[in-house]
Every structure is written in structure tokens, then in C-alpha cells.
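Limitations
The C-alpha cells in this dataset are predictions for the assembled complex, not deposited experimental models. Users should treat interface geometry with appropriate caution, especially where small molecules or nucleic acid strands are included. An illustrative entry is reproduced here so readers can see what is and is not provided.
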Amino acid sequence: DQQVKQNSPSLSVQEGRISILNCDYTNSMFDYFLWYKKYPAEGPTFLISISSIKDKNEDGRFTVFLNKSAKHLSLHIVPSQPGDSAVYFCAATLAQGGSEKLVFGKGTKLTVNP
Amino acid sequence: AAGVIQSPRHLIKEKRETATLKCYPIPRHDTVYWYQQGPGQDPQFLISFYEKMQSDKGSIPDRFSAQQFSDYHSELNMSSLELGDSALYFCASRPAGGGYTQYFGPGTRLTVL
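Predicted assembly:
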């Protein structure tokens, strides 16, 4: 039972355009969400996070939006750069009173074309 | 900035052998997590430690054990290795005193032949 779902295995965008990566979750108890970027043969690198008490968090070119009623979050990258090409994982956790283990989606491979 | 260190980076073992993976968290991080990522899969939580005590356990086989030492480094011990244990094993650490972000090491790629 996949509690965190990334339904698009891959996404291709042109350099300078916006990249939008989507993530859905089924467990309404999740209260903290994170996005990680992963290159081959490396560990996941933390990008940005959002608490369930917020609906938006921004850090430079990266913005995460959370829609709790729809159990949906998205990562926007503007403008996209070729160096952003990687696999992006969405992760969720029960920060309050839980073990804080991360539950991951299966990832979306982003390719930014020059 | 200091990162999570994992050793070895690559390990090749035969079936039924044992393996030990080591993780050195970022300084002043007191919580360590282990994850397993199979080919084409998402990382799956195995086990975690907070202040040297096991804090949570996921889908970790009984053949695996782990501990966290007084210097906060952690070791994952795997016995009676099976072909299906071939995977990337990630360690992550979280800072003491708050914050929910986990910082990952580069991983150990275990191949069981």
C-alpha cells in the first residue's frame, strides 16, 4: 500500500521554463512533507519542506505548495536549469508523536533540456 | 559543511555471509535512520535510533540488527545474506533539539552473489 504517490515517473522541460512535480498522499495523519533530489550513486539531498500548518513554502527557485483537503503537494522549480536534472522524491512523516520515519514516493525523473 | 559518512561505499558478499555497514552522523545529530532502496524502488525505512536507543522499527528482517554507539555512530549488521538483500542502504541523521529534516549519506551499495 503506497501511502505517498508520485504518479509521473518522468518529466521533461525546457531550460528556463517551470517544472512542476506532483505528489499525493493517503494518510491524513502526515504532518510534515519534504522534497529530496537524488543523483545516481548519491544519497538523497534535502531540497525543501513544508509543515501541514502552511500551504506554501518558498526557497529561491523552489516552492512547495500543500493542499491538505486534496492530500496533494507540488514542487515548482522556476526557472529550471539543466543541473536540476535528477530524480525527485516526495516524502512524508508524522512529526508530532510519531517515529518521524520518512515514507517516500517512488520518485519522478526530471530532465531539463538546454 | 560536514555530511553523513557511510562506509563502505560498495560491498560484495556471497549468499549466507555477513555484512556490517557503518554510519557516522553529522556532528550534533543524535538520531540516526536506516533505509533500504531496492532497484527502481523508493527508500524503505528499516530502523532508527535516538540517543543510542532504538526508537522505531520498520520492515527489517530478523537477520538484521543495528545499534547506535556512544559516539552516535551506528552499525547495521546483516547475517545469512540473501540475493534479495542486494540494494542501496542509506543512513540519515537528524539534528538534536528539533527539526524534522533528515540528512542522508551517500549510501552503501550491497551486492549479494
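Some entries come with short summary sentences. For this one: The mean pLDDT of chain B is 94.
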